[in-house]
Fold this protein.
Amino acid sequence: MSVDVLAVLPALARRLGGEDAVLAAAERLSGGASMETWAFSMEIPGQRRRDLILRRRSAPFDPDASRSTSLAAEAALIRAVRLQGAPAPPLVHLCDDEDGLGECHVTERIVGEALGRRIVADPRFDAVRPGLARQCGEVLAQIHATPPPAAAELKTADFLVELGRYEDIYRASGAERPVLELAFQHLKASAPEPVDLVLLHGDFRNGNLMISPETGVAAVLDWELSHIGDPAEDLGWICVNSWRFGRPDRPVGGFGDYADLLAGYEAAGGRPVPLRRVRAWQALGSLKWGVMCLMMYLSWSGGTEASVERPMIGRRVSETEIDLIHLLEAGL
């Protein structure tokens, strides 16, 4: 759906704030082939300026062809996890046909930093960094305790389902990477036993967390990959080395240790999760990211994508292979 967002935002500001509300500022923050993120502010006479975030799908959503949820489902998830105490940005408005923007929703803009490299290295975060891993465990316990909203219609996947899905993608590519082959075979043979499945964020990692230099985790962002699955999937994903931003010595997001993550999870009511199970999902996370990187490279080398970002990310498959070797040598 082709829409001039800047032209439509003044009307949205009036709908949200009344006829006297005016659009004070707007800028596009990021976006890909199908999703846009806009920051905008509105001013209402006699009230403080209100800073908001608009997430908008710019391409048609096909639930059968996509792993992501609809933005209406995201809105339902945000409402649900906030009721459980998890720090998600407050939902302001789920857009409809009257707004003329297509599929989108509006949330409050949370103050903080989301760039992973700054979070692990910037001195502004020195005071809160030692507590971030424990906070992440606490937040994940809140998310996992949330009853999945029926309106979200979430997909379900366990360890072997996820492993099989990515192996199918890898086989279809025709690639032959010995380390990836070894990882597929090892993880297939040593898959953890099934457990009760819960609501997952699905992309819980450094880079999708808004961090305040005063209080730590201020909000969990980007709920589009939420699904039903093994609690250790979320716990393992934040430990994947690719999300440590140059701090491999701190396995949780580049800022903390496994023990703090798991202690925070249990203290907030999460069922105990063995470290070995977390590391199995961490290995599957590295393998998944390796396959994703490989597919990005192949889309560029095959001529279907011209973006320079594709081959740049594609080069990172070698990083995931190194990570997998270390995990396999350590026995996970």
